[in-house]
Amino acid sequence: MNESIESMMAEESSVLQTRVLYWGSQGEDVKKVQSRLAQWGYLVGEVDGIYGPATYRAVRRFQRANGLVEDGVVGPATAKAIGISLSSNQTSQASSSGLSREGDVYLLAKAIHGEARGEPYIGKVAVGAVILNRVKHPSFPNTIAGVIYQPLAFTAVADGQINLEPDKDSIKAARDAINGWDPTYGCRYYWNPATATSKWIWSRKVVVKIGKHWFGN
Amino acid sequence: MRRRITSVILVLALIGVGAWGAYQYQMKNDYKTALNNAYQRLFHDTKAHVSNVQVAISKALLSGTKEQNVLLLSQIMQQATLAQDKLAQLPVSQSDISKTNKYLTQVADYSYALIQDHLDGKDMDSKQREAMSKLQDYSKYLTKELSDLQDKIMTGQMTLDSIASKQRKGLRETNEDMLATSLTKFEETLTEYPELIYDGPFSDQVMNMKPKGLGSKKVDADEARKIAEDFIGKKLNGKLILLEEGEHLEDTATIPSHTFSLSTENNRNTTGLYISVSKQGGHVVWMANPRGVSGVSLSMKQAQERAQKFLEEKGYKNMEPNYSLRNDGTILFNFAYTENEVTIYPDLIKVRVALDNGEIVGFDAATYLHAHHNRDIPEPNLTQEEARGKVRLDFNIDSVRLAIIPKGTKEVLCYEFKGKYKENDYIVYINALNGKEEQILQIIKDENGTLTF
């Protein structure tokens, strides 16, 4: 069993997630970092797309000079300071059969971003969980898209905010929700008591308050 | 001269604005027509599908053979699914169609369960016939309501474009009323809709399953806080704040729990740490620390050892790692409970390990707490070879073992065959008691881990 899990894990790659570059990384992203660092004089060496000792030292020098954590790793903060984005929105390489869950993750992330942008992380996961709880419930459409695009269901869908590009947190929250984390314990509704206009929503059975939203059934 | 130029410019501007306005108006009408057409189609389709359900149910009640019934039931299933799917796309609010939706979903789901019974050689029993004829009664009401609406649409008394302009608000309201009133009328008849007893993903029994693995001890918020602090282990840099709970937490939450978030004085913007402790039994249901992870210093194997050790420390013995998913600098492991060398998939715990320092940043035992109980695992009636005989000969098997898998409200003991068929990976489950092929899963491995479909 153990070997089979290990064989499942291939090398570091990125699927809708920010890649992190470190000693040993290779590829276009490394090249981008190197050429910027060479331009600014931090890197003395070749721009070859291989994260070796020269690149490592250059990254550390850059981090020291810019008040970043000096770890020699190009994570989100360092990448931002260098002014590049690390393949963050590369779509996943679909498997040979075309089966993948990334489409669902991205759609859910868009809904979360539109509905719960200003909420704490747990509030974002909770909104994702409500959508998934609806999918599993007989009273609602039985697909993620069916639930999200149900007419009159979500304001962020009606006013087009769902089409904003989801941020990293929303994508992470969507993934957490799809992996099963449900901070709402099975709720199918949520509302913001400060802005809810529907009288009907107040007849729901309240379960828990997360951030600004009440969650209920 | 100057004046003339100004007026010429103004006139040109006016013409421009006029043309632009006319174009916009035309566009708006085009969009409205397109939307209205789409809604019309959905409505008429819904009505047709519901009528088909009604007819197919009446035939299924009359039919004398299982073979014919399987065909009719699959028709019911298909037509009810289509009706539900299309109804949910009409511009009606969820509160007006929630019971109708549930009715249509369960008609489809129930038919599927009956098909399985037929394939097992069982006839419809008197209770199932009774349930079916109840379902048919409702399909009659629904067909009638939808026919009345259809007449109104045909004679132009009603349109379906709810996104009408503001001036037409009055008309829009009556419109919405008409559609909503008819549907609510049907909703009211559904209040006495019987609870269908069957095993399917949308049955009330599956929806209302109570957790089995909690124990009986009641735990108040202070005790829960203590349990949470012990679970996190290290010295907390802040305070655990109890999330406000609603009055229906106890009766509607899947696992009623005390939920805490860790608030740190100086940094409110961090993603924080969250933990939940069940009110009954005082178990940690889940814990999450969604911090950012930069850099990788652990191997896959080290991370798995960390996760396993963590579970042992928390008192979860005999947990076996199965699948894993790698995202955002962390790996999520699925552990299943094992007993007498039988893998018990319903007893599932997820552990997430951060790859920078090996910290446990996620734990989720909700599934385990739902399913775990003392089981009497039966002896298989079939030998492994006999079970192998039930699987396609050209399925290239890599490994075999005994496993318990969930099936509706029940669990079944199966032989689990992992292998390859035409280049793809699958798992085939053969019931170890009666030889039935219970389930086939397709396995997709990608660079981040493994998914089952």
Short description:
Chain A has 217 residues and is mainly α. Chain A is 41% helix and 6% strand.
Q: What does this molecule look like?
A:
The complex is a heterodimer of chains A (217) and B (453). Chain A is mostly helical and 217 residues long. Chain A has 9 helices and 3 strands, in the order αααααααααβββ. Chain A is elongated and about 65 Å long. Chain A starts with a helix and ends with a strand. Mean pLDDT of chain A is 80; it is low at 1-17 and 88-95. Chain B is of the alpha+beta class. Chain B has helices at residues 2-62, 66-87, 94-119, 126-154, 169-189, 204-207, 221-232, 249-252, 300-313, 366-371, 384-388; strands at 239-242, 257-263, 273-278, 284-288, 319-327, 330-339, 342-354, 360-364, 396-407, 410-421, 424-431, 437-446, 449-452. In chain B, a hairpin with a 5-residue loop joins strand 3 (273-278) and strand 4 (284-288). At the A-B interface, helix 1, helix 6, helix 9, strand 2 and strand 3 of A face helix 3, helix 8, strand 2, helix 9 and strand 5 of B.
- State the helicity of chain B in percent bands: 40-55%
Mean pLDDT of chain B: 88
**Distance, first to last CA of chain A:** 41 Å
Strand order of the largest sheet of chain A: 1-3-2
Order of helices and strands of chain A: HHHHHHHHHEEE
Structural classification of chain A: mainly alpha
Mean pLDDT of chain A: 80
Rg of chain B over CA atoms, rounded to whole Å, is 29 Å
**Globular, elongated, flat, extended or rod-shaped: what is the shape of chain A?**
elongated
> What is the CATH C level class of the largest domain in chain A, in words?
Mainly Alpha
The CATH topology of the largest domain in chain A is given as: Arc Repressor Mutant, subunit A
Name of the CATH architecture of the largest domain in chain A: Orthogonal Bundle
Major pleated sheet of chain B: 13 strands, mixed
